[in-house]
Amino acid sequence: MSIYMLAYYGGEKPEKPEHCEGHLLQWEDWEESLGNGLIDPGRPLGNHKAINSAGVTDSNPNPLTGFSILEAGDIDSALEMVKNNPHLKVGGTIEVAELMDKCH
User: Fold this and answer.
1) Which residues contact 33 (CB under 8 A, 6 or more apart)?
2) Torsion angles phi and psi, residue 47, rounded to 5
């Protein structure tokens, strides 16, 4: 089994409180569907900046908006686990990346 990070990009935020509640219920259902495969449900991310050798900049047009950590047999299995994630229903993108050992 391998560990994967899900990086959430973009997506529309619910405009009304009742939409937010419904979205949270979808997240809870998705998390439950993964069982022990979900190691860390993660958190949404707020305002952020980027820094590189040239200095600090505002974030890019498709900002990182959250993360989760899961365990799966391979990347195809991880992608299968992610295909019903509620973030996709609000126009977001999810990048799935295997976490590597430090020596790689």
Assistant:
1) 84
2) -60, 145
In a domain, 104, yes or no: no
> What pLDDT digit, counting tens, does each position of 21-53 carry?
888 899 999 999 999 999 999 998 888 888 888
User: In terms of C-beta density within 10 A (0-12 exposed, 13-18 middle, 19 or more buried), how is residue 78 classed?
Assistant: buried
Written as six digits, the tokens of 65 are 């908006």
Helix, strand or coil, per DSSP, at residue 53: coil
Full domain range(s) for residue 34: 2-98
User: Number of folded domains in the chain?
Assistant: 1
Residue of 81, 79, 66 lying closest to 33 (CA atoms): 81
103 in any annotated domain = no
Burial class (CB within 10 angstroms; exposed 0-12, middle 13-18, buried 19+) of 36: exposed
